[in-house]
Specification:
The complex is a heterodimer of chains A (312) and B (54). By secondary structure, chain A is mainly α. Chain A contains 14 helices and no strands. Chain B is built from 2 helices and no strands. Chain B is rod-shaped. The chains are: A mainly alpha (312), B mainly alpha (54). At the A-B interface, α3 of A face α1 and α2 of B.
Amino acid sequence: MPVAPSPHHGDATRRMPAEWQDFWALTKPRVMSLAIFTALVGMVVAPVAIPPALGVAAIVAIALGAGASGALNQWYEVDVDAAMRRTATRPLPGGRMEKVSALHFGVGLGVFSVLLLGFATNWLAAAVLATSILFYLIIYTIWLKPRTAQNIVIGGAAGAFPPLIGWAAATGSIGWDGAIPSLPWMLFALIFLWTPPHFWALSLFVRTDYAAANIPMLPVVAGERSTRRHIFVYTLPMIACAMAIPALGQAGALFAWVAGVMSAIFLVLAVHVGFRQEVAGDRMRPEKRLFYFSILYLFLLFLTLMAEKLAQ
Amino acid sequence: MTDIDEHRQSDSDFDMDEYRRRQRARARVMALILLAFVALVFAVTMAKMGLATR
């Protein structure tokens, strides 16, 4: 089986070009799908209807921007990914791609996505997209993640930009309604507050991975008990934010019901995870349940918001 | 391509068939992406012209 020897370590011998599927994997498609969906919702709930062709172009640009963030994150974190079982088979640590290819791909995709969004819609949306890409790379990946256990709290803002970008693409504005945050900012806040309990649930059942990679995630630095309490505490403002959306008149009765029921279930799961101790052999099932439910939670809330708008 | 041809002489382990297969697969995907991009630019242009004449 003749294959390229250690592509990212600068070997001078001939290298096999990466498969196109490896470039696709570099974009973190699952993360990208969340960005696409939340951006689409931000665009649909905006008060100004965007022409379908421009809407499609904007979504493509936002998807490419998210893909660029993923590629640049993997380019920078190749050694970290190699140390973690969950990420060791990614294209770079797996030795299927040269590191410089990932850098070129990420930078090219990022620049292209910003230009596409700017030309197709407006330069405010493009500027917010550029900010989100740079925030994810510089603030989260390079600065916060290797330095502080609060990495995911502040870094969570990176994933919260898409609805703001979708709204800006449709309206050309991301202003507030006087003293009250406008709907795109509420959606930004909801994702921002949702990220810590979501990621800390994950970090509980992959904490040995983070420890091996020397990443100061909360369970590694502060311990399991503290992480559990943090999950519970951070769930409360997230729920308050979700319920504030209908309370402020930014969503209707259906959203209020869905948000209420889903938030109640989230709270029950967070209380369970927050105040229990791991039992040998339980395989962290409650933590996994909370992690997967948190994805469903965000998806259903955004879907309901979009359904309400489309039904008007 | 020069350095690749030079390596071909010295690297007997190198699987040139696999190399070509990957190149072809990447070229096909790139062609599809470029076609999609052309269609997207056309659609965006039409939409912008529509907005301008409103």
